[in-house]
Design goal:
With 233 residues, this protein is mainly alpha-helical. It folds into two domains: 85 residues, Winged helix-like DNA-binding domain superfamily/Winged helix DNA-binding domain (Arc Repressor Mutant, subunit A); 134 residues, Four Helix Bundle (Hemerythrin (Met), subunit A) (Up-down Bundle). Helices cover 71% and strands 3% of the residues. Strands 1-2 form a two-stranded antiparallel ribbon. The chain is elongated. The termini are close together. It comes from Saccharomonospora marina XMU15. It holds the Pfam family GntR. Keywords: DNA-binding, Transcription, Transcription regulation.
Length: 233
């Protein structure tokens, strides 16, 4: 398996920064060298280094301070390694695809059931939940909102066992969704648009439409991972 295109270059940049921390060159609280100097030293383009820094800042490994440079966060070294490990190793593991396949089987049916059984007040509250993100949510805010959105719909199906399964499987794909939001252009906007469509289908009591939108929504994440992160070689 391998990442493709700029994805593998970004992974290389992340791995290089990780190695500097492992080797003790960068310690918690240290400031990174200037972007140009670090890119030259690591043999990376400034663009790929910039993407790596952006990704690592979103998972709190690096702290980008405007006008002051980029710092390694003051996390314990073991926590830093755990946070970085999932990004570097993510594209080598296709287990997440199996969880997304299960989501694609379960959640559309849960969503169709919710269109018939979920109380109107709870459906209206889904719109409030989506509105709470504002116009320009961060990826982290979106993923937290996303988990809550899908949990409420699963609960709205009226089947506690189904809700428990959906919650369990959905949580296992959280990091994948975060990484998609970081790296795929327009992923945030697409997610919000699809969530709105699902909420409207629930509000209109259209189970078939709700099922279809839920399928499209989950299949989009699955397709992205299949094509971009875990291409077989």
């Amino acid at each position: 398996m391998k990442g493709l295109g700029t994805m593998s270059v970004t992974d290389d940049a992340i791995e290089a920064i990780k190695q500097m921390i492992v080797d003790g060159e960068l310690r918690p609280g240290d400031r990174l060298p200037r972007e140009a100097d670090l890119a030259d030293r690591l043999g990376l383009s400034r663009n790929s280094l910039r993407e790596a820094v952006r990704a690592l800042s979103l998972i709190h490994v690096l702290d980008v301070r405007q006008g002051d440079g980029t710092y390694v966060t003051s996390l314990e070294p073991a926590l830093l390694m755990d946070a970085m490990g999932f990004v570097v190793d993510f594209h080598r593991d296709d287990t997440v695809l199996q969880f997304l396949e299960v989501r694609r089987i379960l959640e559309p049916e849960a969503t169709a059931m919710a269109a018939l059984t979920m109380p109107k007040h709870d459906i209206d509250e889904l719109a409030v939940l989506l509105d709470s993100l504002g116009d320009r949510p961060t990826v982290e805010q979106l993923v937290v909102n996303d988990l809550e959105f899908h949990h409420r719909i699963a609960a709205g199906s009226g089947n506690q066992v189904l809700c428990s399964f959906v919650d369990s499987v959905s949580g296992r794909t959280q990091r994948a969704r975060t990484w998609r939001g970081i790296t795929q252009e327009a992923a945030v906007e697409r997610t919000l648009t699809e969530h709105r469509a699902i909420q409207r289908a629930l509000s209109d009591r259209q189970p078939d439409v709700a099922r279809a939108w839920a399928t499209v929504h989950i299949a989009g994440v699955e397709q992205w991972i299949r094509q971009t992160l875990v291409e077989q070689i």
